[in-house]
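Hey, resending since the last one bounced:
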Amino acid sequence: MSLSSTTRIYSETREKADQLVQIAFRYQGRKDTDAIAAFEPPPEAYSDPLGPSHFRTKKRMTERRSPGRPRTALSTGASAQPGSGQVQSLTRGLRLLTALAEATDGATLTDLALQVGLAPSTTHRLLNTLEMEAFVHQDAGQGRWYVSVKAFQVGNAFLNTRDIVARARPHLQELMETSGETVNLAVPDQGEAVMMAQVQCHEMMRMLVPLGSRAPMHASGVGKALLAAMSNSEVNRIIEQRGLSSYTDSTVDSPQRLMTELEAIRDAGWAYDNEEHAVGLRCVAAPIYDEHGLPVAAISVSGPRSRVSNAQVAEFGSMVSRAAANITRAIGGAPPGNQAA
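The structure tokens again:
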């Protein structure tokens, strides 16, 4: 067989191989020219013009990396947005993780792709990467994706940095035993109160709140306790940011009424949620301060209206205030005006 015939046969075989490679990588949602270049023999191996010409065309698709030269963001598929200092693939992965965290019943690939504004193929690759690192997992039967235990472990590191929950827990337990009602601990975040710990009471009918859930500042006991510990300018900023949505007929939904109530809370030392976020649920709360006299958390006693009567509200207020003061001291904090010089 002549060299020209051999070259033609190889060229046809190579073309079919190229097609298979392209199909395979299109299925994966990308085009890997380095893999294609692995098939490429040196041009000098051929004397027939068809061979080198064919491979020169393919070679223009490939840029070989010099040894030791770091890959650019483009070569790794992790392009950064100009001037933002962000790595696009990392930003997208975190957005996916956040979307999954908000989906209590998990989410399908299509739902996630629509929610974060990505192509399904891109979303699938990011989810696979997160799954390999144990941040998410997929229910093979339903095809839905869920946050996994690794995400909880990483998020739980926040608690270790302040150690508020660990130091507060014995006081929360004691308050639950004293009051007979469920006790909650929340921290402020972006104008909302985020539930970080809960000690449930022994009653059959009791308040249950998923950890990590958020409550509006103006319509919750812990939220109003935190607002009352802030300056009026901070309160106004949160009102502008979040508004004053109405949840029940008892919700405080005007800035004037809210400011008036916050003054009363400052005088009493505790806040009262009188069915303002959920009908039938009452909460009494007080703030926890850091070493600078700033509110870092709040605790509350929560129960149904039938057990948290009008006559018991003031009594619960005293209990919660004492527990909050004990936790403030336990974390090295102090109320405003009582900080060490």
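The radius of gyration is 30 Å.

Sorry for the duplicate.
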